[in-house]
Amino acid sequence: MGRTDRATRTIAAPPAAVYDALLDRESLEAWLPPDGMRGRVERWDPRPGGGFRMVLTHLDATGAPGKTSDATDVVEVRFAELEPPELVVQQAVFEADDPSFAGTMTMTWRLVATAGGTEVTVTATDVPPGIDQDAHEAGIASSLANLASHLETAG
């Protein structure tokens, strides 16, 4: 595979708060689903080697069918590396019959303190070829906007 997608956003919150939102089940359900989706975590184990299973449901599957079913994307995520409050590395595998969505995608969340809060850079490597690059990068940017909104209104 080998493709890399990324997005960056500065969030008006300290790195520790951003890191905590990456490892809190309820927070993750609130902000991770990009626009047009909702998410539900079915299993949660926030430690290195642990992970979670998330069901993402398309609010309108017309024109953007899911990977697992017409309306859903189911993803198994393993926490490969956790370095508070600077780094979260996840390995994600989508449940899909279509081989173009197969493989393990690595999502690296890098948190860097800035004068305005925290610069969050998400880098997705080994992105399955069935995932449209523009749509994926827009989805990551949407999740980051949701994260910013979640933290900036909570704090």
Structural class: alpha+beta
Spell out the CATH superfamily of the domain at 4-35 and 80-154. Answer: START domain
Number of strands: 7
The profile of the biggest β sheet is: 7 strands, antiparallel
Map the helices and strands.
Layout: E1 4-11, H1 15-22, H2 25-31, E2 37-45, E3 51-58, E4 72-83, E5 87-95, E6 105-114, E7 117-125, H3 133-154
Antiparallel strand pairs: 1-7, 2-3, 3-4, 4-5, 5-6, 6-7
Family: Belongs to the AHA1 family.
Organism: Streptomyces fructofermentans
Domain Activator of Hsp90 ATPase homologue 1/2-like C-terminal: 12-152
Write a compact overview of the structure shown.
This protein has 155 residues and is of the alpha+beta class. The chain is 24% helix and 42% strand. The chain is built from 3 helices and 7 strands; from the N terminus they run βααββββββα.
